Amino acid sequence: MLDSLFRPQKVAVIGASTKELSIGNRVIKNLIDFGFKGEVYPINPKADEVRGLKAYKSILDCPENIDVVHMVIPAKFVPQAVEDCGQKGVKNIIINSGGFSETGSEGEAIEEDFLARAKKYGIRVFGPNCQGIINSDPTIRAYCNFTFTKPDPGFISIVALSGGVAEVIHQGFSAMGVGTRIYASNGNACDVTIPEIIRYLGDDEGTRVIVTYVEGLRDPQNFLEVTQAVAAKKPVLAMKAGRTMEGAKAAASHTGGLAKEDIATEIIFKKAGVLTFMDEGELIQAAAAFATQPIPKGNRVGIITNTGGPAVIATDVLVGAGLTLPPLSEKTEAFLKEKLHPAASVNNPVDVLATAPAEHYRACMDAMMEDENFDCVFVNFVTPFFVDNESIAREIVAVSNQQKNPIVCNLMTDRRQWTEVVKILQDGGVPCFSLPGEAARAMTALFRYRGIIDREIGAVKTFADVDKTKGQEIIGNAKAAGRSNIGASQVYEILSGYKIPVAEWRIVSSTAEAEKAAAEIGYPVVVKADAASIVHKSDMGGVAVNLQSADDVRNTVQLMEKNLSAEDLRFFVQKYLPGGLELIMGAKAEEGLGHIIMFGLGGIYVEIMKDVVFNLTPVTSTEAKEMLASIRGVSLLRGVRGQKGVDQARLIEIIQRLSQLVSDLPDIQEMDLNPLMAFEDSVYVVDARISIKS
Ligand code: ADP
Ligand code: MG
Fold first, then answer.
1. Which one, of 488, 577, 570, lies nearest residue 529 by Cα?
2. What domains can you pick out in the chain, each with its CATH number?
3. 560 contacts: CB under 8 Å, gap ≥ 6
């Protein structure tokens, strides 16, 4: 559906200018210089021609079947121009001009106006306030954009709202001698959206890897669904600016504070199978590797080097990221002992020595590509003046072209001197880097994508034994009463309705009732104050644990009555559950997305360690398992130093039940189970809070 936008035959420019230094001129120059295969119609009421092309007075005078119209005119003229395009049957409009929603309410009104007109005619709008698109497909060569980086044809497509970042990434590829396929930078994105473009690129055969940059997701659910489907087919690499996980985590210790919006994007990326990068350089380098290399089957890398130290640096990066350096097979070892210099080190890494000629490299690469022990090959190549480096480069290209297993090259050279070597590798499509760490990180990205293809997402389990109606009733009543919090006893009722185990409890209003409840529950017990105004009970002396007798209970209740003056003060009597591992679970509503689910170490640990992980509803069984496995303190769950672990199966189930609970009850704004007490064969919630959307 976006074909007419990305593969245009006829392009008109409203606002075509004879002035050299103007966007209305530059767009036309770019189309001509890039060798656009279609026709270009400059529109200018005063000029006869622009850049040697016949100019038309109005879009209405142009030939028919126009695919793309650029608008490079002041915002206030855009609605009428869109109307004209509608009359003409134009398919797409790229609005390069600014002055719309990005400027305030006046501009926003103009944007709404032209968009309504475009919709009326079925015209798709790209932008406004954007650069436009580029398609380097040799049969298209569309440079519908006013920027200046002219890409070679390639396999990487770039999509971003931000023109600045898209262009920086584009220039990064250009600097590496790596081509690009489709480039799309759509500014305000009032109509054609990023997910829509990602879907298109997913279907575009010429695109092998998609690179995107986001600052925030407008329609996160849609983004998630689209990228999840696309990322299963081809790598989607993303970077989000304005995020630091640690910063967000440090903000506060409860779910609301822990799960900042930044985290939501991060979780979406993860759930979708998008490869995320913290650094734009690393993203560019990884994309360069994906552009030409197959995905490794596993994590075993063979290193070939002609100098020692840099291979050590690469090894650290690779192993640190979960790759391994297995030994050479006996066959490879025997073969290389015969082929290489006697002093060469025939291990992994193989050091062929600086004097190694091209045949030695080739023998090594061939052997490692054949060797069942390896899934990918890392070449560390310094260019000594005493060997024929160009031949070495050609052999690397030849092996890369076989597309057997991925290969990356760290080329250590003076790029101004060894231009031919650089050119051979670049033109040959070898991902070629200037630092061992860079090359290793690009290799690591290929391996990370293997993990995404192979991952098992698991199924969403729906528990049939839950009492949804009760939850709806409780929350409905609280909402009707204008309350934003739910009383503790009702929170426990909702939890029990979802078969989330709660330590046995009673709610009481007097010492006599408290003593009776304690006797029923059985000592030892805990007494907690409960009132709408009391949030953190223990901070206010509202929690007393390990009460052994009726006297203890009576004294505690009396003391709390004295110290805590709340009209609605009541008391919780709860079974005391000593010796468990304190854990936390939480949920937080996320605009347009459902809920973020949190799991981690609770109690004092939540404050000190901030050891929590997040996922998004609905959480599958596999994801719940992963959540447990990915906290830093996972060994506490599994059991350490003779201590028994906790009931992980139960925790996995509770995460899924919590996920179902908040999905069933979308009015829940935030929910905290802190702590849950986990034991070897059971788990109980001992404190819970729910707040509802206002
Ligand atoms: P709040 O979070 O409002 O201060 P909690 O109910 O979480 O109050 O109690 C504070 C702490 O007391 C818990 O983190 C836990 O260490 C301990 N505690 C509370 N209830 C129990 C219980 N039933 N059994 C054992 N320890 C408990
Ligand atoms: Mg608590």
1. 570
2. 1-135 (3.40.50.720), 149-292 (3.40.50.261), 294-454 (3.40.50.261), 504-576 (3.30.1490.20), 581-692 (3.30.470.20)
3. 527, 529, 541, 542, 544, 569, 571
Report the pocket of ligand 1 as residue ranges, CB < 6 Å.
503, 526, 528, 536-538, 543, 545, 574-578, 582, 603, 675, 677, 686-687
Taking a C-beta distance cutoff of 8 angstroms, is the pair 318, 339 a contact?
A: no
The whole-number average pLDDT for the span 66-85 is 98
In angstroms, rounded to a whole number, what is the distance separating the alpha carbons of residues 52 and 202? 38
- pLDDT, one tens digit per residue, over 357-369 is 999 999 999 999 9
pLDDT confidence band for 251 (50 / 70 / 90): very low
Give me the long-range contacts of 545-548 (CB less than 8 A, separation at least 24): 545/576, 545/578, 546/576, 546/578, 547/518, 547/523, 547/576, 548/523, 548/524
411, 422 in Cβ contact below 8 A? yes
pLDDT tens profile 20-60: 999 999 999 999 999 999 999 999 999 999 999 999 999 99
> Which CA distances in Å does 170 have to 106, 159, 280, 669?
33, 10, 11, 41
Of 56, 29, 25, the closest CA to residue 41 belongs to 56
* pLDDT exceeds cutoff 80 at 261: no
Asked if residues 464 and 668 have their Cβ atoms less than 8 Å apart, the reply is no
pLDDT at 250: 38
Q: What global pTM score does this model have?
A: 0.89
Atom 14 in ligand 1: residue holding the nearest Cα: 603
Which ligand approaches the C-alpha of residue 504 most closely?
A: 1
Structure tokens at 45: 């009421």
Atom 23 (ligand 1) nearest CA = 576
62, 56 Cβ separation under 8 angstroms:
yes
